[in-house]
Amino acid sequence: MRCTNDPAIGFTRLSFLLLLLLIGQTVAGGEGDINQQIALLRHPGWRVRKKAAETLGKLGDKRAVLPLTEALKDEDWRVRPAAAEALGKLGDERAIEPLVAVLRDGYVGARNSAAEALSELGWKS
Q1: What is the pLDDT at residue 30?
Q2: What is the pLDDT of residue 59?
């Protein structure tokens, strides 16, 4: 393995280690898990934000609905489908209007995930 002083690579590695640490804490369970995952939706790394959205869907806590609806507008196309899928799993009707807006997203993966989530919520056009 080659050593590098590239700050971007160092930041990516640090972000990944932080993500692993937080995932381990989430598996352990506890009240702080939901708040940690919600905070990670604002992390600079898209992989961390995507994993946080996926984890929030698995945790099933409806306190994540509003932060996940904000994640539907994430700048990275890979995060938006994860947020939509998580909202479908949470089953909260507050997600319907934001998910309908995603049906106009420029990325087909986000549109498809939003359509599937809306179906899970019982929405019919």
Answers
A1: 52
A2: 96
Query: What pTM did the predictor assign?
Result: 0.76
Q: Is 123 helix (H, G, I), strand (E, B) or coil?
A: coil
Q: What pLDDT is recorded for position 1? A: 45
Burial 41-63 (b: 16+ CB within 10 A, else e): bebebbebbbbbbbbbbebebee
Instruction: Give the other-Cβ count within 10 Å of 29's Cβ.
Output: 9
3-state DSSP assignment of residue 16: helix
Per-position DSSP letters for 21-88, written without gaps between them: HHHHHHHH--THHHHHHHHHTT-S-HHHHHHHHHHHHHHT-GGGHHHHHHHTT-SSTTHHHHHHHHHH
Which token pair is 23? 């995932």
Joined tokens for residue 29: 């369970």
